[in-house]
Amino acid sequence: MDYEKFKEGIKGCEKCKLHENRTQIVIGDGTKEADILFVGEAPGRQEDKKGRPFVGRAGNLLDKLLEGIGLDREKVYITNIVLCRPPNNRDPEEEELEKCTNYLDKHIDLVDPEVIVPLGSFATSYILDKYDLDGGSISSIHGEVYSVSNLQGQFKIVPQYHPAAALYNPELEEVLEEDFEKVEENI
Ligand code: SF4
Predict the structure, then answer these.
(1) Tell me: the pLDDT tens digits for 5-20?
(2) Which of 12, 126, 154, 158 has the most crowded CB, counting CB atoms within 10 A?
């Protein structure tokens, strides 16, 4: 499917109740030619306002981590497992994940990345389940490199802490820097 048609098809989506409070749907950012696809959790207040993923403080940290491995947003693709902001930044609910992850699946098909980087526990759990991989808590599997070989080809999955976690626990910034190096080693 063509990327522009895909985006057009998401416009006005009301498949789950998150449409009721959103300002806009935050589809994704970057290039669909990217080797790396980052998958966060959900848009926050700033993202909902601006229509781009990771534009708040967590986004600044993501930019810094990308810069640390010689990349920027123009060279990667970034999306979330749910595309509309949950009220008060609550966790996405099961039904919302069920309805919205179809769009993530299409993003994966369109970008066809060499490395998928789920950020945080929600994205990690969805991506590992999707490919029948054994998971665990994000604190135990962050930085692990999973290899997948299927009909779509071969690619890697490298789960990471969500950058927002490092805003509350600054020690995690160093862990993220080390784990981002694992991403760099696999592209
Ligand atoms: S979160 Fe996803 S499924 Fe729900 S309304 Fe937004 S785009 Fe549609």
Answers:
(1) 999 999 999 999 999 9
(2) 158
Of ligand 1's atoms, which has the minimum distance to the CA of residue 102? 3
Range of the domain at 69: 3-185
139-171 pLDDT, tens digit each: 999 999 999 998 888 999 999 999 999 999 999
Which residues contact ligand 1 via a Cβ below 6 A? 10, 13-16, 18-19, 25, 82-84, 96, 99-100
Residue 50 maps to which CATH number?
3.40.470.10
Helix (H, G, I), strand (E, B) or coil at 51: coil
pTM given for the model: 0.97
Residues 59 and 56: their CA atoms lie apart, in Å, by 5
A 10 A CB-CB count for 170 gives 8
Backbone φ, ψ for residue 155 (5° rounding): -155, 170
Mutate which of 7, 96, 102, 104 for ligand 1? The one with the most ligand atoms within 8 Å of its CB, which is 96
Q: Is the pLDDT of residue 1 over 80?
A: no
Considering its fold, how many domains does the chain have in total?
1
Which pair of structure tokens corresponds to residue 180?
Answer: 């981002």
